[in-house]
Design brief:
Layout: H1 2-8, H2 11-23, H3 42-50, H4 70-81, E1 90-93, E2 99-101, E3 109-113, E4 118-122, E5 126-133, E6 139-140, E7 143-155, E8 163-175, E9 178-187, E10 194-200, E11 212-221, E12 228-243, E13 265-268
Antiparallel strand pairs: 1-12, 2-5, 3-4, 4-12, 5-11, 6-7, 7-10, 7-12, 8-9, 8-11, 10-13
Length: about 270
């Protein structure tokens, strides 16, 4: 029994550090227990309290140098496993069959759907527009989600013949039955390469269940035989610090002039 006790001396403090490092989360809380003020593990211990892993031993005390039983350790580990993630990007891949001709334009757009890509083309030479209405969760594992941007993988090389001329990405809110534009990112560079590009929204906002996300593409075709291939579209999300979901009345400030919002893009593969 002495050996077992020796193995768990200080385990309460060591476990506090382990769960923080494994979760990869930031913490800044201090002063949560009177006997941990100034302790080397104070911020980790307070992180445990803030996240509901421990409530101490009573009387405002934690007992950082006391032994911990195997039963107590089991309770800590169970509570830690139930903490939702609050860092890292989440990619939600969209079905490519959701790409449709954009109804805002008199279009000769044509789409062909295959197992691994969707082909954008046109019945005549010229520029055509395409629209994808995204489907994403507004919360995940108990955290409200932040809409960060979109990743699109495409092939617009000369072999395909078409040029990708626009990627437009918008985040709308619903207010009184009407749509309000909250955030936008766009890239009007003519692309004749094959790449996966990520477009990030400046000052992203948390999602509400009634929000709407749209992706607008434009492509130029010298003839009806030319095409642009789209192999993947993923919406980029990240967990917020907010637990649960936000209500539709949550205060979120719309952008004042979408045209002034800077483009944010990174790519893999060769760029023109």
């Amino acid at each position: 029994m002495k050996f077992k006790h020796g193995m768990v001396i200080g385990a309460l403090s060591v476990f506090a550090l382990l769960v923080v490092f494994s979760a990869g989360q930031a913490y800044a809380s201090t002063g949560c227990f009177t006997d941990t003020n100034g302790h080397w593990a104070e911020t980790a211990i307070c992180w445990m309290k803030d996240n509901g892993i421990t409530s101490g031993i009573g009387g405002g005390l934690y007992g950082p140098e006391k032994n911990v039983t195997r039963a107590q350790m089991a309770v800590f580990m169970k509570a830690q496993a139930e903490i939702p993630p609050s860092t890292g990007d989440i990619y939600v891949t969209q079905p490519l069959t959701a790409l449709q001709p954009n109804g805002n334009f008199a279009s000769t757009a044509r789409l062909s759907y295959y197992d691994d890509y969707t082909v954008l083309s046109s019945t005549t030479a010229g520029v055509n527009y395409y629209l994808l209405s995204a489907t994403v969760p507004s919360s995940l594992y108990g955290r409200a989600l932040v809409l960060k941007g979109v990743q699109i993988c495409y092939d617009a090389t000369p072999f395909r013949g078409g040029t990708l001329t626009l990627v437009g990405f918008k985040h709308f809110a619903s207010s009184g039955g009407a749509s309000v534009l909250l955030r936008e990112a766009s890239d009007s560079t003519s692309r004749t390469d094959a790449a996966c590009r990520s477009y990030l929204i400046s000052s992203p906002l948390s999602l509400v269940a009634s929000d709407h996300i749209s992706l607008n593409l434009a492509a130029s075709f010298p003839s009806s035989f030319d095409a642009v291939y789209i192999s993947s579209v993923s919406i980029i999300l990240s967990p917020s610090a907010t637990t649960g979901t936000l209500s539709p009345t949550s205060e979120r400030e719309p952008i004042q002039d979408p045209s002034l919002l800077p483009d944010h893009a990174s790519s893999s593969g060769s760029a023109p």
